[in-house]
């Protein structure tokens, strides 16, 4: 059976962004029954040295200084937002506008109003409101790439796809 390849973009490559990149690389090995392989298409980080490391050390195909370029990249199917907290809502709203499903690290925003704005925009775009929590299982290894398809409603989603990193990964069919 041919594996479905999902193009991944990661915004900000601090500790959490690097963890997301490594987790995406392990999807195929950790969950072979899903028939999915994550392709590290691009990372976005304003620091030139981090951009270089994204390509040379983490295996991304390219790196951008501006996350808007990453969101405009047609080869990216899903996005992990791992930026500093004060940027989460801004980048999430831009991802929604770009039509990119995304995983967002907690918190969604620095205020209840920002989180509400992101949740409402996600719902309006036909996606479950995203949120994240720290778990023993790295979230990207079991969730975000499945959000390529619009999510069904879920009572307590932890990803734009409505799945949880503590449950069995959702099917990633065509």
From TrEMBL:
Molecular functions per Gene Ontology: nucleotide binding; oxidoreductase activity
PANTHER family: BCDNA.GH03377
Compositional bias per record (Low complexity), positions renumbered to this chain: 128-166
Region annotation (Disordered) ranges: 115-174
Name of this protein: Oxidoreductase, NAD-binding domain protein
Pfam family, one: GFO_IDH_MocA
Gfo/Idh/MocA-like oxidoreductase N-terminal domain location: 7-127
Alphabetical UniProt keywords: Oxidoreductase
């Amino acid at each position: 059976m041919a594996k479905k390849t999902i193009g991944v973009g990661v915004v900000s490559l601090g500790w959490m962004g690097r963890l997301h990149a490594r987790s995406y690389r392990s999807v195929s090995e950790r969950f072979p029954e899903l028939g999915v392989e994550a392709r590290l298409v691009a990372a976005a980080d304003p620091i030139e040295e981090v951009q270089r490391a994204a390509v040379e050390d983490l295996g991304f195909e390219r790196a951008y200084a501006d996350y808007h370029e990453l969101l405009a990249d047609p080869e990216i199917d899903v996005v992990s937002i791992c930026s500093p907290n004060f940027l989460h809502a801004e980048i999430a709203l831009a991802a929604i506008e770009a039509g990119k499903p995304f995983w967002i690290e907690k918190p969604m925003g620095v205020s209840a109003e920002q989180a509400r704005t992101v949740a409402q925009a996600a719902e309006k775009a036909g996606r479950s409101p995203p949120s994240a929590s720290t778990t023993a299982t790295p979230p990207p290894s079991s969730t975000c790439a499945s959000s390529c398809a619009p999510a069904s409603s879920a009572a307590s989603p932890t990803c734009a796809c409505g799945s949880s990193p503590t449950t069995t990964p959702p099917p990633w069919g065509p």
